[in-house]
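Exam revision sheet. Question 4 asks you to relate a sequence to its structure. Input first:
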Amino acid sequence: MKNVLLILVGGTICTANENNVLSITKDSGAVIRDNYLSSDSACVGKVNIDLSENLLTLSENMTVDKWNLIIDLYRKTVIKGKYDGVIFAHGTDSLAYSSSLFSFLLADTDVPVFFVSANENLSSERSNGNANFACAVECICYGISPNVYVPYKNLSDGKMYLHLGSRLEQCKNYSEDFYSVGAVWVEDHSEKAYKNAFALIDEKYPQSGKNPMVGLYNCKNLEDCVLMLEPYVGLRYDCFDYAKFRAVLHGTYHSGTACAEKSRWYADYGRNSLLYMLDECAEKSKDTDIYLSPSRLEGEVYETLPIIANHGKAEKRLSFLYGQTKEASYAKLVIAYSVFADKEDIKRFLDTNINFENIH
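Answer key, C-alpha cells:
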C-alpha cells in the first residue's frame, strides 16, 4: 500500500461553481480523493490518501507570505518515511512559479512531489483535474524517481504530459495548455506507458544531476524582496521605489533586449529607458542588484546590450541571466536574496544548476 499526502493549496481544482462564480470549498480535498477512489484506475486499492489542513487560496492570490505558509505546512506534515509521495492541489494562475520554487527547495526530496491543477472545476465535463490527479497518484504507485513534477493534460491535443517543475512555463492567455522544454508524454494509464515515461525522465534528469544548495527543511522564511518587470512600449522607470527591493528581475523582448534609448527631451536618459533605472539604483538604491533575463552578451548582439552593460556605475550591479524560464529565475532570486547575505554566495547559487532549470 502506498501512502500519499494531499496538500490543499487551492485553485480551480478546489472550487465549486455557484451562479457562475467559482469559490473555494472546504470539502474539496474529499471530493478530489473520492473522485479518484471511485475511478477505474488500476492503482485504486493500492493507495491511501491523507488530507492536509486547508490553505485554500485562489492561485492569483498567491504571495511570498503564502509560500511561507506552504513551506511551514510541508515541514510539519511530511515526516520522513511516512509518505511515498506528496501532491499539492494548486491553481493554474501561479502554478509555474510555485512548481519552480519547490523544485529548488526540494531538489533533495526522497519522495516524488506533484503539483496538480485543473482547467475547470471538477464538476465540469471539460475539467482535466481528475485526470491530472490520477496521473500523479499512478506515478507514485508505479515508482517514479523523486523530484518535483507537474502532470497536466493539455486540452488542445488531449495528451497527458509530465513536466519537470523547474521548467514549467505559465499558461498563455486564451489557452488551456501548459508547456515546458523536455516534457514527457504519458501515452495511457497502463503501467507499461508509465514505465516508458519514467525511463525517459531518468535519462533526461538523473538523480545525480541535482545540486541542492538550499533545502526546504533548513530554509528560513522567504522575503518579498524581488521586483519583476516586463518590457513593453511605454514602460516608465520613474514609477518604482527600487530601494524597497534587494533585486530587480527585468525581462526582455524575444531578442534579449530592453530599451536603452537616450531621450531627445531630457538632459539625462528618458524615463522609458532602462538606463534611467540603472542611474536611479546607482544613486538611491545602493544594495539593489539588477538582472536582465533572458539575455546574454555572447556572439552577435544588438547595440542596446553593450550600452546597457557598460552604463556608468550601475554596470557593477547588473547581471545577465540566460537559459531559464522567467518563473524559475524569479523563484531562484527570491530564494537567493532571502537566504544569503553575501553577494558571492548569491552568485554561486544563481550560477548553480540546482534542478535541471538550465534549458539552454
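Marking note for examiners. The chain has a mean pLDDT of 93.
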